[in-house]
């Protein structure tokens, strides 16, 4: 196994198109030790599908970031509500928080939300007209999931745009100070919302969420942390899901036209769209608590381990011709929502939002095409998620 001398996940070419990098690394070895960040730190990066699936369920790979960084010198200043979320914990703390979060996203609850989601899409697209241009990201992919998750949590309408902006800043791979500031703004704001709701009896969504947290035995810090996670993860990746899916379809006009002719195929196409260009490129932090072996590679105790769903979803050993968008492919084994106990509980809601948004687009504007060259969209500079900064569309 040979290790790259530069962090391959911070190369500007990676942000624009990570798949050549992933392919090169996977072909060398599906589990590689790479430099990461600054200060000579290293991590193991997993790019193969079987290896990623195995790692997702290995209890020796901990998500307890506080445990890993205890005693290590760090210049970071993340708010505890961001640094100690359910995604940064192991059982039993993880189990308690997940037990509270899961009921918010059951199939039945999402079914109840579908009319509301449809209404939000209708409102956002009400001013769209054939012959005009819109930015799919700014005009639909961002406000739709923000509105839905804020409604679910009872966040006031006046706060939603501000919180969405701070959430956007959290994923900036080039400015850690900006990330840290955003974490405090989100954590402090949600703490005030929770404390205000506690002091003001009511029966709205936020009070319902708090009752569920109380029943689950969560303390104040855990409640704020869970609210932050649901807010951030509940819209950021769905925004990228919608944007990436539309771009993929418009870069493959025959696939887009097929869905225009048969919109009922959309639910079955979502897995392939998720596989083709995953909104989660690299999963959140894990570290080895003891020596282990993954994909024939020994990983010593005490190392960060990065699992890359974006790479695993393009593993040709599992998905032949992985760079081809094939709406007839059985892509149900993709890892865009993770796998194991940390699999995204909000997956049913994300799928519903993407389905409803795509159906509205193909039925109302079946002649839509990209407003610029297919290679022109600008990608956000973040390695955890993969998403567009904007996507201009010519409606028709």
UniProtKB/TrEMBL annotation:
InterPro entries reported for this sequence:
Cyt_P450, Cyt_P450_B, Cyt_P450_CS, Cyt_P450_sf
Alphabetical UniProt keywords: Heme, Iron, Metal-binding, Monooxygenase, Oxidoreductase
Alphabetized Pfam families for the sequence:
p450
Q: Which domain of life is it from?
A: Bacteria
**Protein family:** Belongs to the cytochrome P450 family.
Name of the protein in its database record: Cytochrome P450
The source organism is Streptomyces xanthochromogenes
């Amino acid at each position: 196994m040979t290790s790259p001398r530069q962090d391959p996940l911070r190369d500007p070419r990676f942000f624009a198109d990570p798949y050549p990098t992933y392919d090169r690394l996977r072909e060398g070895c599906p589990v590689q030790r790479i430099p990461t960040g600054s200060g000579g730190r290293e991590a193991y990066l997993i790019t193969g599908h079987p290896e990623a699936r195995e790692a997702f369920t290995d209890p020796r790979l901990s998500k307890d970031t506080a445990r890993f960084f205890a005693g290590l010198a760090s210049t970071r200043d993340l708010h505890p509500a961001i640094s100690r979320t359910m995604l940064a914990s192991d059982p039993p703390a993880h189990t308690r928080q997940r037990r509270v979060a899961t009921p918010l996203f059951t199939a039945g609850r999402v079914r109840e939300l579908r009319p509301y989601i449809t209404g939000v899409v209708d409102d956002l697209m009400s001013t769209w007209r054939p012959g005009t241009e819109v930015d799919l990201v700014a005009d639909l992919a961002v406000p739709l999931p923000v509105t839905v998750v804020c409604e679910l949590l009872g966040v006031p309408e006046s706060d939603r745009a501000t919180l969405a902006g701070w959430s956007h800043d959290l994923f900036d791979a080039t400015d850690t100070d900006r990330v840290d500031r955003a974490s405090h703004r989100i954590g402090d704001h949600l703490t005030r919302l929770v404390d205000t709701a506690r002091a003001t009896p009511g029966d709205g969504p936020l009070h319902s969420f708090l009752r569920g947290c109380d029943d689950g035995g969560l303390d104040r810090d855990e409640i704020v942390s869970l609210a932050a996670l649901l807010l951030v993860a509940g819209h950021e990746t769905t925004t990228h899901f919608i944007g990436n899916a539309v771009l993929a379809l418009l870069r493959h006009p025959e696939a887009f036209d097929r869905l225009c002719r048969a919109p009922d195929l959309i639910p079955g196409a979502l897995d392939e769209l998720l596989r083709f260009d995953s909104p989660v490129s690299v999963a959140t932090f894990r570290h080895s608590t003891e020596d282990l072996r993954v994909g024939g590679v020994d990983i010593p105790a005490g190392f960060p381990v990065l699992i890359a769903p974006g790479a695993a979803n393009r593993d040709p050993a599992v998905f032949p011709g992985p760079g081809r968008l094939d709406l007839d492919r059985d892509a149900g084994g993709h890892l865009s929502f993770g796998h194991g106990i940390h699999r995204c509980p909000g997956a049913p809601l994300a799928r519903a939002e993407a389905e409803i948004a795509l159906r509205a687009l193909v039925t109302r504007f079946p002649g839509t095409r990209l407003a610029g060259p297919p290679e022109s969209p600008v990608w956000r500079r973040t390695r955890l998620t993969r998403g567009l900064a904007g996507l201009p569309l010519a409606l028709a």
